[in-house]
Amino acid sequence: MSIKAILTDIEGTTSAVSFVFDVLFPYAAKHLPDFVRQNATRADVAEQLDAVRRDSNEPQADVERVVEILLSWIAEDRKATPLKALQGMVWEQGYQAGQLKGHVYPDAVDALKRWHQAGYQLFVYSSGSIQAQKLIFGCSEAGDLTPLFSGYFDTTSGPKREAQSYRNIQQAMRVEAEDILFLSDIVEELDAAQSAGLKTCGLAREGGELEGHVTVDSFTGIEPEAF
């Protein structure tokens, strides 16, 4: 087989967009302010708060101002790495308390298990932090799916719509570009991956076509050996 590894997006691909926007984001927006206030001196939290100050060019911002900035970033769905890291910490508490369960489509669960058993290496690349990715799959409605995956990548590898990000990931995976199949519901991400030499498959769960890429409406229609 030519494909040796499968790199998948989460939002809109393995998991419903609505889970992120209707469940995770509101949960973070509600709980993040108190989490930041209560944990501002914790080393890993303080590090991210300093990153918020740097990214917003407000080095003197106090904790309340940082909370304001974070809430504004949530409202505009900004892909800011410190926000993603802090959201992940808040979600971790929610998952551990049983208030959150990760949504993964049943067809994705079945396919991921089948591919893992068949010997494909499985990786994740999402704009959500690596911690958030592990929580979705580790505390999913289908149980702990993390043993299926060999690695995770987030925006620290680069923006998802830039070809260089996929080159960085390919080097980290130590698999030839043409032996990697990338799955996403966003045509610009698929274009970027294709430019880096990866094989691509688009997910259009509501139907339609992601132009320039093989397109399916569920994981059931993906046969890695066909690429």
CATH domain topology of the largest domain: Rossmann fold
CATH first level of the largest domain? Alpha Beta
CATH homologous superfamily classification of the largest domain: HAD superfamily/HAD-like
**Overall strand count:** 6
Low-confidence stretches: none
**Number of individual domains:** 2
The best one-word shape is globular
GO molecular function, one term: 2,3-diketo-5-methylthiopentyl-1-phosphate enolase activity
EC number: 3.1.3.77
Catalytic activity: 5-methylsulfanyl-2,3-dioxopentyl phosphate + H2O = 1,2-dihydroxy-5-(methylsulfanyl)pent-1-en-3-one + phosphate
Cofactor: Mg(2+)
Structure overview:
- With 227 residues, the chain is of the alpha/beta class.
- The chain folds into two domains: 5-16 and 103-226, Rossmann fold (3-Layer(aba) Sandwich), CATH 3.40.50; 19-96, Transcription Termination Factor Rho, Rna-binding Domain, Chain A, Domain 1 (Orthogonal Bundle), CATH 1.10.720.
- Helices cover 47% and strands 11% of the residues.
- The chain is built from eight helices and six strands; from the N terminus they run E-H-H-H-H-H-E-H-E-H-E-H-E-E.
- It has helices at residues 17-39, 43-55, 63-75, 81-96, 106-118, 130-138, 163-173, 187-195; strands at residues 5-8, 121-125, 151-153, 180-184, 199-203, 214-216.
- It has a six-stranded parallel beta sheet, sandwiched between helices.
- The protein starts with a strand and ends in an 11-residue tail after the last strand.
- The relative contact order is 0.17.
- The model has no long low-confidence stretch (mean pLDDT 95).
- Its cofactor is Mg(2+).
- It comes from Pseudomonas khorasanensis.
- Pfam families: Hydrolase.
- This is Enolase-phosphatase E1.
